[in-house]
Protein 1
Amino acid sequence: MRSTLMDIAREAGVSPATVDRVLNNRQGVRERTRHAVLETARKLGYLTAPFSETMETAGKIRLDFVLPAGTNTFIANLLTQIVNQGTIQEDLDIRIQSIEGFNPDTLARTLHALVGVTQGVGVIALDHPTVREAMRALSLSGVPIVTLASDILHVPRAGYIGIDNRAAGRLAGYLLGRFLGNGTKRKIALFAGSLSYRGHEEREMGFRHVITEEFRDLDIVELREVRDDRQRAYEEAAALFKRHPDLSGIYNIGAGNAGIGQALQEVGMASTVIFVGHELTESTKRFLLDGTIDAVIDQNPRVEAREAISVLKNTILGRKFEHHPPRLQVIFRENIPES
């Protein structure tokens, strides 16, 4: 006699309703419970082998990562690492949602659309009311969220995966100040992707505090937002150098290093301006080697991808886990790591 749902429920130690949800691939069941039910159904002969394999494929943990599109090489590297690390874990179904990165309404709509569809979300999020409300809606539906690279406070989330951005800004200020020294008045400038990212705002804050506290001979003459776009960064930098041909230092808070470096080289200022930026990419590596960039503060996208997946997966499964956040690393020409 063929086993029934009641038999599976009794053997697996769950309710018949839970068995029904699992066998019909509905939401609302922990992955550990789902696997236990499927294993019991297989053991009792309720599922044939081909159907069992189909169910287990359908029962993968779906994770969605919402990332900004554009020319930001760090984001591209992070996306690649997320996909690569998800591929080697057979129980995961990872989807990438690439959106226009500086439109909070687009981001909010994308997050709302994931309610009832996904089991976990990683997001590089703008700190905006519509985005915070969308994150709250996801959380209320039972979907854990991790913020990546830039955090948002006062919203439910399973964790923040990224560096301490305020500390990163202070570190950049300290590096630039030590390179340029005290005793002589010098001009420096800032570039940012967008201060609507809390992470960029925190880096600026940390940088300004260190300059004010320890390097008062340095005068911040401009802050330009370049929306993490290479071409826009190039154009803003070229215009800046015309206005301030005596500029001594640059701190780039976000992406766009390639554009700024190109502009520095074209006007012949690459060897005289101290340039501190973020993220070790192929372009920043080349600029380190030829002296256009003096120091890069890196946060390791491979580690961020690994930790984001780990936090989401273990939270969904209800398992305890150790969190190993990425660390700040300063890279100079002499200590470029192997790829």
Note: The two ends are 59 Å apart (CA to CA).
Protein 2
Amino acid sequence: MFERSALEGLKQFERREGLDPAGWQITGRYRNPWGRVPMTAGGKSLGGGSREYMDRLLATQRQPDPMSRRHHYVPRTYLKRWSFDNRRVWSLDTVAGRLRPLSVNDVCVEENFYRVIGPDGEAHNRVEAMFGIVDTELHRIQALFDSLDDPEELEFDDLIGLGVTVAVQRIRTAQQRRLRLQQDAWMVAQDPERFRSISDPLNPLRVASIHTELLFTSMWEAADVMTTRSIEVWDDPRGRFWTCDAQVLVPFQKNTRPNLASARHILWPISPRRVVALTNVPSGEKAVIHPATAKERGLVREAVEQGRERWIFASADQSGHLPRRKRFRRRTQIRLRCSHWTPQGRLVDPPGCCVEQAEGFSAGPDVALCNQGLHVDAPSMWDYG
């Protein structure tokens, strides 16, 4: 069972990402090239390869506890697409300003990042085994779209696999955990009697437990947002695409990141020469492959620079173009604003207000709320800035 703080966090995540089912409405009609409804009903309607994938995930709960304590939040199989020797990748540390080749074994990894407390109260690493299944599917989908020439060869299971892969890769990162800690700090400050912080010095695995549980409970709903978009594959034969440690990118608009439902593009670089772009502009095709324009290449590069948590990665040919001398003072942060309207469009009578939460691009948590005495300062948010 979720505790109240976790449940409230999930509800806020759904509202922020535009996942409220009551908010859907028909905006147009176009050909469905799949011949089936491209949604999983939140994981309740699965068949074929998708059902097998879910069964494999569930089966890991009965496996022995893996011994590994070094957990990668950006999969090694993903980074190897940028590697020059299948072992190392050129890596820019935007905090230290250092550019060097690093082993994919030693970057974007933390000890016990996915170690959680089970229902029996004992700590275990079986989530790492679950991510072994996730990463196997990631490898299949990444290789499929990196070599794709004829979109008509795609099957329905490939669409679902892409949606789930993109959703999970976006949520599992260190950046999303940090943002959840910012959100938690604000909520606890507003009502400490109602909310218990997910950060507990006496229970250091609590954050990982809640982050991981929310990931696996929201992955199918997030995947349904991905699979209802059109697929574009941007191809650059010169291999000029970069990636980062928050590899699924939603470009900022005026320093604010739109939610998943309204974003023009959701970008997933899959190799130096290809990016999968999920767009909200219908095409009526399974996928559209086209040469990347200069504007699209620039959009990806800016999204990588702004959307990274700490690391930017590039091929050997592109390593000399990485911005090693740039000072990265800003990154993704929680953004809070007051509004007289709820996300459902209902007016909040004065003196009340509704706090809108989004993700912004700033040097620290971007909090600008009303001064009616309705809100409490939360200075601990800046501990995770």
Note: The chain has a mean pLDDT of 89.
Protein 3
Amino acid sequence: MSSLRPWRDIARRTSRQIMVGKVPVGGGAPITVQTMTNTLTSDAKATIDQIRRCEEAGADIIRVSCPDEASTAAMPQIVRAAQVPIVADIHFHYKRALEAADAGAACLRINPGNIGSSQRVAEVVRAAKANGCAIRIGVNAGSLEKDLLEKFGEPCPEALIESALDHIKLLQDHDFHEYKVAVKASDVFLAVAAYMGLAEAVDCPLHLGITEAGGLIGGTVKSSIGIGNLLWAGIGDTIRVSLSAEPEEEVRVGYEILKALGLRTRGVRIVSCPSCARQGFDVIRTVERLEEALQHIKTPMSVSVLGCVVNGPGEARETDIGITGGGNGKHMVYLSGVTDHHVQDDGMIAHIVSLVEAKAAEIEAGTSVSMDVTHGKAA
């Protein structure tokens, strides 16, 4: 059967599926959202507190850095407390990988090339197999091998792809196939080209990211362009938005990217205007307060907030709950796309929140459905 809205269709690349703990990655599974803690992993309490905030934001998988023995010593407590799979980030010290695998990490993030000799890689693979760990090969334009830089002159798509293929071979030589791969760069063009080339060369799941993307605004823009382009092309099985911001913000941005493409959703999607002199209420401040007040809603649904009647009624027809600004502080409320009642400025935010909570409860109970036609697979 043909799609009703073919311009929204995304044909996802077919890949093998691996398991990261109990979370499937690739093979048609929902695209997962990842982040990484920035606390000292050795401080188990601080790390667990941050993991909890990321879980509340919707993180499917969380990575923690394991640079020393104190960090891997804290891993068993962290893994027990976490509700999502924990990935151990390992560089250079292969023994940290062995310790993290034994401590319950669901995945090891390594560059096989900087772990050391083939014998050391073999030890890491044995530990991963024995503990049911997946491995994420992480190639980064900022840390390419010297021989590849000499060969290609600079980081380029071909260099990142060759590095990834070399690392894959190291694992395959030890009969290990539970891996996913990333070829990240801070240059959007470089990262996208590398991922597109790699997607044609391998059948494993791909972990997407624009590394060192920047702060909350700049990094969100770069990540949305890079990750969004790849996802739109059907490439990518798990994503991490790398921001110089709190990790829960990375999770929220990741979901917003997936929501915008209709690939996956979680919580309320807000449609709002930029506001102008026609607005009947302060749109910007209203949206800010609603975004904060509705963070606890995990049910996929939509709310439109439009300052005047130019586009308000049309947008409201496509959303679960809508509000359009009117004169004298009297605004029209739409339910399931239909005009329903008016509300005054005073108490407007609380009124919308109560309507959203009621609608979410109905959707969860199966007595109502969402109007949001752009929603993809629910989280």
Note: The chain has a mean pLDDT of 94.
